[in-house]
Amino acid sequence: MAVKAMGWAHSFPMSEGVRAGREWTRERLASLPWAAAEPDTVDAVVLAVSELITNAHVHAHSDAHLVLTWDGDCLHVSVHDEDPTLPRPRRSEPGDVGGRGVAIVQQLADEWGMRCQRHGKAVTACFRPADAAAE
Q: 28, 64, 82, 102: which sits with the fewest CB atoms below 10 Å from its CB?
């Protein structure tokens, strides 16, 4: 059986903010056959992308390089930034306005991870839509 994968990549400069990343991601996901039947998965991916781009901009003081890849089983989301420091989940207090990004991604994704790369790090997440088999 041949594996058909599709993917997209885009860089989001700090000056663009995260809105452009959310909109770009939502537009790409709309082309996937399961997206219309899986609005909750689409929303989860868009929220995770928003959190990861925000972390790249705010904590790494870096542009965010986003790659989305659909392999027929998992939508892989990867955000690379230029800071090699791996994020550490932290405990946020109820009144805190930040500090929940990694925890949000952990809760939304089926799998997630992070790794140092040349010139920075990548944080990745995998989302498995329930209706992917209906392709």
A: 82
**32's torsion region: left (phi>0), alpha (psi -120 to 50) or beta?**
beta
Instruction: Return d(Cα 99, Cα 6) in angstroms, integer.
Output: 32
- Taking only Cα atoms into account, the Rg of the chain, rounded to an integer number of angstroms, comes to 15
d(CA 124, CA 109): 9
Task: Name the burial class of residue 45, with classes exposed (0-12), middle (13-18) and buried (19+) by CB atoms within 10 angstroms of its CB.
Answer: buried
Both tokens of residue 115? 């790794």
Task: Catalogue all structural domains in the chain, each as residue range(s) with its CATH number.
Answer: 11-90+98-134 (3.30.565.10)
pLDDT (tens digit, 9 = 90+) per residue, 90-108?
Answer: 676 666 556 677 888 999 9
DSSP helix/strand/coil, 14: helix
pLDDT in tens, 55-84: 999 989 999 999 999 999 999 999 999 999
